[in-house]
Design goal:
3-stranded parallel β-sheet; 5-stranded mixed β-sheet; 1 helix; 10 strands; single chain
Length: 110
């Protein structure tokens, strides 16, 4: 079991099965240059065509918004947006869904 103050090692994790509690988080070195999945309001993110990408290096994707998207189809959360590059995906809130949709996490440091 890993310590609560150390992130899980998610190297190579690309897809998670439906109805799976999302526990993996990128190893964030600082609060900047990260896509954060949290209970906070979605900001600096666009989600179209099943891809959620940052519009600024510091972006937030609300966990409930992500769950809603997963209810309608597969979702990829990426750290690369148009002219924007965050480094990590930091998951700070649990995400769950009951559909057969898949979630892909694509971080530039992975």
């Amino acid at each position: 079991m890993q310590s609560a103050n150390r992130p899980l090692d998610c190297a190579g994790v690309r897809m998670l099965a439906a109805a799976t509690l999302l526990l993996c988080a990128g190893a964030v070195q600082n609060a900047t240059a990260a896509v954060v999945v949290s209970s906070g309001s979605t900001q600096n993110m666009t989600c179209t065509g099943g891809v959620c990408a940052p519009t600024a290096p510091d972006a937030v994707l609300n966990a409930g918004d992500l769950e809603s998207l997963l209810g309608t189809g597969n979702v990829e959360v990426t750290t690369t947006g148009t002219g924007v590059q965050a480094k990590d995906i930091d998951v700070k809130a649990a995400v769950s869904w009951s559909s057969s949709s898949a979630l892909a996490l694509d971080a530039s440091l992975s």
